[in-house]
Amino acid sequence: METTNMTDTQQLTLNFNAKNHLLTVTRWAKFLAIIGYIGSGFMLLVSLFVLTLSSFMPDLSQISPSPVTFMPFKVLGFAYMALAVFYFFIAYYMYSFASKSANAITLNLDSELEAAFNALRKQYTLVGIFTIVMLALMVIMLTVGLITAIATLSMI
């Protein structure tokens, strides 16, 4: 990645169209953030439901010998809860960007616009880290799946 050093004397100005485009982005970002809050709330409720249900259900590995049923429901519930927390922070940073950008444009404050872009940076950093982790997990799961398939076929 290329970084550019800017001095304090350099200044960026936004014209009327740029401000209008940024206001449109803030409206959509607020909408998506609110949907994100609602979605993460539902995910949290589902995870709590799965965790509650898992205490009443027997371990599936005792019922079915299938290799797919090795994961207990509690692991699924905690994984869903972790995704809900992660999604909440994505929505939080998006809402922070939207509200601070709108304030910066309406009040013409550079410091507020800087804070808005800092929130946007945090959101993209979080999404980027999550993407890297998910790609690594996919590679690991694919590798384990292929090794398991080869081992199963060699036993036949």
Structure description:
- There is one protein chain.
- The protein is an all-alpha fold and 156 residues long.
- It has a domain of 108 residues.
- It is built from 4 helices and no strands.
- The longest helix has 46 residues.
- The protein is elongated.
- The N and C termini lie far apart (50 Å).
- The model has no long low-confidence stretch (mean pLDDT 87).
- Keywords: Membrane, Transmembrane, Transmembrane helix.
Question: How many individual helices?
Answer: 4
- Class per helix and strand makeup: mainly alpha
Q: How is the main sheet built?
A: none
Rough outline: elongated
Helix content: over 70%
Distance between the amino and carboxyl termini: 50 Å
Task: Estimate the mean pLDDT confidence.
Answer: 87
Radius of gyration: 23 Å
Strand content: under 5%
Low-confidence runs: none
Order of helices and strands: HHHH
Number of strands: 0
Main attributes of the structure:
single chain, 156 residues, mainly alpha, 79% helix, elongated
Q: What's this entry about, in short?
A:
By secondary structure, the protein is mostly helical. It has a domain at 16-123.
Task: Draw up the topology in text.
Elements: H1 16-54, H2 60-63, H3 73-107, H4 110-155
Helix pairs in contact: 1-3, 3-4
